[in-house]
Amino acid sequence: MLLTALALIRSWFADRPLTVAAWTALAAGAMIGMWAGRLVAKRLAFHAFDGLLAEDALQPQARRRYIVAWHGVGLALLASITLIARPSLLILSAPAYLAGVLVAGLANGFGMPHRIAGPVRPGWTILAWSRRWIAGASAAMILLLSLLPARVLDTNVLMAVVGIEAVLLALMLARVDDAIVRFMTIAGSGSRRIIGYHTKGLAAFLVVGVTGCWGMLGRSAAGIVAAASAAMVLLLTLRILAYRLHAKRLADLLVAILAGLLTLVAYAMPVALPVIILAILWHLQRRGRTKTWLLA
Amino acid sequence: MAAGMTPIIQLAGATVERSGQRVVHGVDLTISHGSWFGVIGANGSGKTSLLRALAGRLPFAAGSCRVEGEELAGDRAGRARRFGFAPPADTLPDALRGRDVLELVGGSIDAARLRLGTLHEALGLAPLLDRWVGDCSAGMRQRIAIAAAFAGGHPLVILDEPFNWLDPVATFDLRENLRKTVDAGLTLVTALHDLGTLASACDAGLMLADGKVALALDEDALRIAARDPQTFERQTIDRLRSGSVTQA
Asked: CA A39 to CA A104: how far, in whole Å?
């Protein structure tokens, strides 16, 4: 399976223009870095509080060595895959990985466990803030302000910048905590209420972002922001519906498969995309309806 | 049930299954309006399953469940809407504050606070409202979970072992406050491990053994138990050991 996956990755990267391959490597490196950063931080917190290695996990030097060792492994793996896929992209994927680790560290805290146990919780605070209207409106303002100097760019480049920024900002607003979804389900919230609770930020981003982009850059840019926001709403909805049905890992796997399926449909049969989306949402919603209030 | 008291919850032949296994077998019980009903039993005796099924968090596999005269055995959501229910403390999400939990269950925090009344102070909720659940101790989580059961303003409340993890002061304050709230009209159903609380605070109760009613305790039986708690404890422990199915 590993060999097949590597062959597929190499084949995909080999067929892509350099710019597309470079952006993909950059995004993938950053996301893997963030994921690995969170994973290592969580493991370290476990060792500090509940594990048998608490004494070591509370020493700054040992903590640093632990972090460096695991990210060394992660970086080596990513570098190996990049070298197999397209060696020239190593210059992007490795720094992107480190940037991702840095972002995860800023969100979760690199520091000693007293920060983890203290009242300041950047990760949870950002998660809670991302569900508010004001977060979506602020993200849209960031988008519009950052596009002010970009108006001099060539139209195609400008639209690409709009798309990338809109996707990244919308992605930040589309965070879902599986434990909150499960708690709301036990407390009697249906899918609609849970989705509404999580999409306030995205809705504000959609309204302010689309209106602002339309006024500033025209309807094409507004369409790109609307499409990015809608895609994130869809992704968030799929995750919520899946978390109502399954444990996190299985739900994430299911969403990844469905997202892949929808991407294929969008590429091969775009006309059928709305029907497929509605069918998937209806099926998940129908199965999830029986889970409301349920505490197995 | 004392003469003249109105039955508000009636189970007849209530049966609950979990993962295909029958864990509660044909339980009959009647709970009066404005009373505190305690359920005791050994670990794995079916207390939690029975209370979750009554609260609409699990389906009944068979039997009748009448709440305020309405048959709800086949209407899980209907039962869930009738009861305030404390979620297990370990299901509270780390990434929510105490305030968020109460708002999700009871609407605005002001409305939840109003419905909680004196329980708000008894549970020491003020410092927990702005605290992340993930930063709370087991006892703090338990206090938030209990508050969640009352945040919706239900006149029927189910608490599964509410005194677990609470310190002695919190246990005393909560028990006193629950008793006052029951005297003011609340109907409360709790699973308990503390026989002293059952004898001194509850109006009626039952003991479960292997999913069956091993002992039904009416108001008179608990009044006698409250007068001689040591004898009651010895007799109850003997029954729990033997798991015998009898009526008091």
From this structure: 9
Q: How far apart are CA B49 and CA B22, in angstroms?
A: 10
Task: List chain B residues with CB under 8 Å of A188.
Answer: 77, 80-81
At B247 the pLDDT is 45
Nearest to A253 by CA among A241, A242, A263: A242
User: Would you tell me which residues 165-184 of chain A have a C-beta closer than 8 angstroms to some C-beta of chain B?
Assistant: 177, 179-180, 182-184
Inside any domain, residue B82? yes
B129 within some domain: no
Which of A183, A185, A191 to mutate against chain B (most B CBs within 10 Å)? Answer: A183
Environment class of B102 (CB within 10 Å of its CB; exposed 0-12, middle 13-18, buried 19+): buried
A107 touches chain B (CB under 8 A): no
User: Which domain does B46 fall in, by range?
Assistant: 7-88+155-242
Q: Is residue B236 part of a domain?
A: yes
- Give the ipTM of the model, two decimals please: 0.91
- Considering only alpha carbons, which residue of chain B is nearest residue A115? B135
Residue B51 lies in a domain: yes
Q: What is the reported pTM?
A: 0.79
Interchain CB contact of A247 with B (< 8 Å): no
Do residue A119 and residue B101 have CB atoms under 8 angstroms apart? no
Per-position DSSP letters for B19-73, written without gaps between them = TTEEEEEEEEEEEETT-EEEEEE-TTSSHHHHHHHHTTSS--SEEEEEETTEE-T
- 3-class state of residue B75 by DSSP: coil
pLDDT tens track for B203-227: 999 999 999 999 999 989 999 998 9
Interface contact B160, partner A, CB < 8 A: no
CATH code: domain of residue B39: 3.40.50.300
Among left, alpha and beta (phi > 0; psi -120 to 50; other), residue A38 is alpha
**Structure tokens given for A210:** 């689309």
- Domain count along chain B: 1
Give residue A108's pLDDT: 65
CB contact under 8 A, A179 and B95: yes
Task: Say what the pLDDT of residue A112 is.
Answer: 52
**Could you state, in order of their start, the residue ranges of all structural domains in chain A?**
1-120, 121-296
Between CA A58 and CA A33 the distance in angstroms is 24
pLDDT band (50, 70, 90) for residue A265: very high
